[in-house]
Amino acid sequence: MIELLKRVPLFSDLTDEQLEIVSSITSRREYAPHTILFQQGDPGHTFCIVLRGAVKVYTSNKKGQQKILSVFKSGDNFGELALIDGKPRSATAETLEDTVLLTVTSESFHLLLRAHYDIAKQVMIQLCGRLRSTNGYVYDLTFLDAPSRIVKNIVRIAQQQGERRGDKIYIRTAFDPDAMSGLAGVHRNVLEQVIRDLEHQRILTLQPTEYTLDVSKLFQSPYVS
Question: Which stretches make up the Cyclic nucleotide-binding domain (predicted)?
Answer without folding.
Answer: 10-130
